[in-house]
Amino acid sequence: MLKAERHKFIMTKLLEEQKVVTTDLALALDLSEDTIRRDLNELDDKKLLEKVYGGAIQFIEKSVDVFNINISAEEEKKKIVKKALSLLHDGQVIIMSGGSTNLVFAKLIPSDLKATIYTYSLPIAMQLSQHPNIDLIFIGGKMQKKAMVTIGMDVMQVLSKIKADICFLGASSISIKQGLTEIGYEVSIVKKAMIESSDRVVSMFSSNKLNTKMPHSVCDLSQLDTIVTELDPEDLSLEEYRKAGVFVL
Amino acid sequence: MLKAERHKFIMTKLLEEQKVVTTDLALALDLSEDTIRRDLNELDDKKLLEKVYGGAIQFIEKSVDVFNINISAEEEKKKIVKKALSLLHDGQVIIMSGGSTNLVFAKLIPSDLKATIYTYSLPIAMQLSQHPNIDLIFIGGKMQKKAMVTIGMDVMQVLSKIKADICFLGASSISIKQGLTEIGYEVSIVKKAMIESSDRVVSMFSSNKLNTKMPHSVCDLSQLDTIVTELDPEDLSLEEYRKAGVFVL
DNA sequence: TTTAAAATTGCGTTATTTTGCATTATTTTA
DNA sequence: TAAAATAATGCAAAATAACGCAATTTTAAA
Questions:
Q1: Where are the bilayer-spanning segments (chains A, B) (predicted)?
Q2: Distance (Å) from CA B54 to C1' D25?
Q3: Percentage of residues of chain B with pLDDT beyond 90
Q4: A47-74 pLDDT, tens per residue?
Q5: Which of B14, B19, B67 to mutate to test binding with chain A, by most A CBs within 10 Å of its CB?
Q6: I need a labelling partner for A231 at 20 to 30 A (CA). Which of A19, A167, B8, B25 fits?
C-alpha cells in the first residue's frame, strides 16, 4: 500500500468518524504505530487534520486572513444557487450585487459561460476574476469597507448608464408588505439603481430571510421577477409571495 | 510497444484501480523500473497523475482558492516596504497600484493612519478594507483578470480628476535607460496616468527587478522620486540610479 | 539511401525515502 | 506522584528514486 493511499484512507476515516486513533490505524493498516504517527504528523503539517494525544481530529481553521472569506452554511447556499444557474445564458449582460449567497453563485457559474458581469463587490470580483470567459467590470467608488462593496455617486452614475439583461440581487430581508429592505441606507440606494438598470431581477436567499425587515426600503415585491430559496417552490411559506406575482424558483 | 501506448495503459490501469505501482507496471510491461519511472514523471509533468513514492495516484485538481494569494519571498518584501512606511502621514491622499510588494505594504500600514487611498487592484482593496481609518476608493473599470486590476477609459477618467500627494507604484522592470517598463500595454497607460496625478512617485521592488526591461514604457527615471529595494541605499548596484537623481531609500 | 541528431532504454552508482526498533522524553490517568 | 500510555529521536536496513552514461532505436535532413 502506497503512503499516499494510506493518507487518503486516514482522511476518509477521519471524515467518517470525526477522529482517528493511532493504535486502531496501526492495527487496521498492519503497520507500526511509528509510521502512523509520522503520517499524522505530515497531515498535520499540511493542515489537513489536527494531531492530538492518541490520534487526530478534524482541522478547524482559525486564521483571520482578510482573503479567507468564511461562508456560513455553504452547502445550503449551493443548493439554492444551483437552481438559478438555468437563468444564465451566453451573451447576457449581468449585474451582481454582493453577499455570500451571490458569492457562492459566482463560484458555480459554468466555466464555459460567455457573458459580461458588472459588480460592485470585491469578493465577487475576486471570484469572477478566475473565470476564463467572463468580461468583468468593476463598478468603482467609495468603499463601504465592512460589506466590501462600493457606494455613492460614482456607483450610481455607472449604473445609470448601463442596461443589463438580469440582475442577481442579494437580500438582507424580505417581507410581503415591505418588499426588499436593507440595513444600510447607501446600499439600499445602490440596489434601487441596480434594479432600474436591469430587465429582470432575481434574488436568492435562505428562507430565514423571509418575513423580516430592515430600516431602508429597496423595492417592493412587484419589482422582483424571481426569488430563489432552498425551499420547494410549492412550500406554504412561499405561497403569499407567489400570490404577489413573484416567480418562485 | 510504443511509449504512447504505455502511457495509455498506465492511465487506464490508474483509472481502474485508483493507483499504480512502479514495480507492478515494470513486471506487467516487461520493462525496467527506470522506464516506468520516467513515464510516470512525464505524466506527472502533464498533470495527468500524481507521482508518489512507489508509484502514482490519480490527479486531484486542487481547488484554486482565489482568495488565497500567495506572496513569494514575503519576508524580503516586508523588509523593503517597512522602509517606506516613514513616507506615510495623516491626511495624505494616496494612489496605490497593484503587485505583491504593494500588497505587503498595504498589510503593514499602521492601523492609526488616517488617509485616503485610491487603488485599482482588487487584492489591495481587499486588504485595505480591513483598515479602520483609511478612506478607500476603488477605481472601477474593466478588469484585467490576470493581474486583478482595472484598466481602460473609466480608470483613466477617474485618475485624470484626482490629485494625490503620493503614489506607490509597483514595478515590473526598471532600468537606467528605459526607466519603468511594463509587460502589458494597458497597465502601462494606467500607470502613466497615476504618475500624472501624483505629486510624488515611489516605487518599491526587489533588486532582481533592477536593470531589466519590458515592452511598454511607463516613465523614465526622472519621473520617479523615490525607489525602495532591500539593498542598502549605498549599494553599488544602485549607484547609477542615485546619479540619475532618484532618491534611494 | 545515407548520415547525423535526437530520443529512448537499461545498467551501475549514488542519493533519498520509508519503515520498524530501541531508547528516551512527555503526557495522561488513577 | 507513580504507572501506563503515547510521542519523539536516532539509527540501520530495505525500498525506491535520481543521475550519469553508453548502447540502441527512431527521426529528420541531406
A1: none
A2: 29
A3: 91
A4: 899 999 999 999 886 545 667 778 888 8
A5: B67
A6: A167
